[in-house]
Amino acid sequence: MTAEAEAPDLPGLPVLPAGSDLRVPFDRERAVLDHRVGPVGRLLVDVEGGPGLVGALRELEGWAADPGSLVEVVAAYERVAAWARSRAVAAAARLAATPEMNPHWPATVGTPAATAAAATELSLRLGVSRRTGDTFVAMGRALDGLHAGTGDALAAGRLDWPRARVLVEALEHVAPAVALEVEDKVLARAEAMTTTQLRREVARVLEEIDPEDAADRHAHARTRRHVSRPRALPDGMASMTAVLTVEAAVRLDACLQAAADGARHDGDPRTVDQLRADALDAMGEVAWLQGAIGPVPSSVGTPADQSAAATRPDLPVRAAMGSRMPLRGPAGGRPRINVTVGIGTLLGLDDRPGELAGYGPIGADVARRLAVDGTWRRLLVDEPS
Prior knowledge:
Blueprint: H1 39-44, H2 51-60, H3 67-97, H4 116-126, H5 130-144, H6 148-156, H7 161-170, H8 176-190, H9 195-209, H10 214-222, E1 226-227, E2 231-233, E3 237-239, E4 242-243, H11 246-265, H12 272-290, E5 292-293, H13 303-311, E6 325-326, E7 339-340, H14 343-346, E8 354-356, E9 360-362, H15 364-371
């Protein structure tokens, strides 16, 4: 390619200087990568998400050779992804409004959730959970209504999907006038923040604008505290997430960190992350062996502690208050962990994987460890089927 080669002529994009070569930067002397952006990157940097940007990428991506321009290619594709997501959730909201998704239900059925049918259709078609389908519908409605400003930023690629969700969900139960004012103050700076920073900034601005309703907002947020069920990860691992009150999260974190620090002080070779995870596991194991969460019966707390717990039923269950939660399965009795594993695997004759109910396939070693202290039940199956 010579310096006289003609660059692509794309309508709506800045015109390149005559004789420019798209493969190299205009300024070859700059040493800092962040500022070394060639002509391709400069052409893409100001193009908003949408079909026009898709066309520009098709024409220009192959010309991007310098690191700065390749960074801009990645950023441009992310703007395309944000635009595509904005269109997807808008369509999900329209789907939820169709008559087919809102049939007349007999009185015996009760009152189904408004988006239940749409969420189910999206779940089946996309292979996602119904909660994700509900999120698509709710976000589509919000971005086309109260949070149209956030919707425009998402469609243009100035805001990505995770940040858009943070803005909308953080203001979900805020008075519309207050929500709009917070959005107006935060939106212009949201692109430069991480999701954690954005969440904190929304909370800070909300406190400045509407401090009187802080207690009500917190009371509502408390009702949504939860711990997820295990989510399968590769290689016999799983993840769980918890949404807790600040005091509960800080207390739990302090306990895990103190346990890890104590173990490290005593020469334990495990990493801090491993020790924190094992400490949390130990809490669950103690409760499993006791058959309850909370203090043992010999230390039930003082009458004053019990009185405080009785007068504040909204408080989380705390061992310090003498609260005790017996472990009960859905049908009563002790809870069970159900593992299906072949007799050959149990006896060490083979290493066929087992099946953990609610999780999926597990390795032979994991299946054997779970079966050690379990109650075995024989299940006779036809091997081919």
